[in-house]
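User: I'm writing a tutorial on reading structure tokens. Could you give me a worked example: one chain, its sequence, then its tokens, then a sentence or two explaining what the tokens reveal?
Assistant: Sure. Here is the example chain.
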Amino acid sequence: MAYPCEAAFRQHGSMPPGNDKAAARRRLRGARAARSDAQRAAAGRALAARVIELVDIEGAGPRADITAYLALPTEPSLDEAIEALRARGHRVWVPRILPTSLEWVALEDGQRIRLGPLSIRQPDGPAVSAESLAAVRLVLLPGLAADRDGHRLGQGGGYYDRFLATLAPAAVGGPLRAVVLFDDEVISSVPTEVHDQRVDVIVTPGRIVRTTSATS
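And here are its predicted structure tokens:
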């Protein structure tokens, strides 16, 4: 069976020529829109298991600080993963969008969730800046695709690249950086620019992929 992303890149080639991020994003977004609700729901359930597996592998401890995100309808959902993490006692932070950066809110029971900029779900409550998240052990971040060298293609706003630039690399005590994707969005090569931040791990419903960034 060909998944939507695989079919799109088979039809048009493995990647757009050169460093055409815009064309890559169009194809990947189109492939995501073609997924059924049932496929998205199944992916969310499987991702909950993969995320808990990753936390166990990394030995994050019983009450770790973890950043995540509240997914758009077409993104891989972390809702069930977040529920599982909080049930284990972890503190989960999700972003609110500012004009050029992200601020972070710890999820709590009974919290009101509103639609914010870009139709992204955002919680009410006090927020902290990225610089206040020194204790975070794991960063779960969205993307459209990634390759095994740790290059990540995001939505184009640059919010997460700027956020990751404030954190120390995992190799020197910073948090593990893990992009969450559908299985077929792990591709051979991602177009990159000099400001792009690499990730250590790719988490999909079916697997956990350690990138070369984690060992370089």
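What the tokens reveal: The helical segments are 4-12, 21-33, 37-58, 79-87, 159-165. Residues 6-18 have pLDDT under 50 and may be disordered.
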